[in-house]
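Please annotate the following for my students:
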Amino acid sequence: MKRRDLPLLAALTAVAAPAPAQDEPICADRPGVGTPPCVTERGRVVAELGAVSWTLDREGGARTDTIVAGDVLTRIGIGGGTELQLGWTAFGHVRGRMDGAVESVSGIGDVTVGVLKGVVDGDGVALSVLGRATLPLGGAAIGAGDWSASLLVPVEVDLGGPLSLGLTPSIAAEVDQDRRGRHLAYGLVTGLTADFETHLFGIELAVDRDDDPAGQGTPMVLAFSGGWRPDPNLQFDAGTNLGLNDDADDLQLYVGLSKRF
């Protein structure tokens, strides 16, 4: 082979060689109030950060503002369609006002551990099971004061194109309002997501039943969320949750991000 033919051969080889595989876009547990069934791949880690959220609740003449910052969820893929989860909230501040009197309290949140297991993934349907437990390591501001546990069954149905339908039924042993003992709570989140790889948009309806001995309630929330992925392993997000009845918080605004390693 003549030396002058070598550059041409190299160019032809580069064109014929397959392009390096691109990662699928990150599938984060945020934004939104539902839970996706996607499982983190073996050897990968997804770190999700709720940078800051503000929640407003007004009831009668009382007003409560809650600010949470540094809400972290780490998801670790261990193979076999399974991931481990570890969550913690670094800071929370609650400010209550009633009849001119103001009370404020701040502190860290509880620690959450969980296991997500994929059960079905094919023919346009994905289903997983997620078990979570909350350890009462936080303070009085945003900590529950006792342990709790929950079971969720996230489901996603491909509707064609960018659209998918999500369902997240759940049942839980929630901590009582007096921070001692537990009661039954259950609910369902249903929503539509439009995922365009670099951008995603979602609308969800969440209905829960809380049988707290101090007062039963059925909060209903309408949630709007969106995300932007500058690359497949990074996602920025924001969302708004609107309370539809007196049992739900009036308003929540939040921003955050997720990164896959």
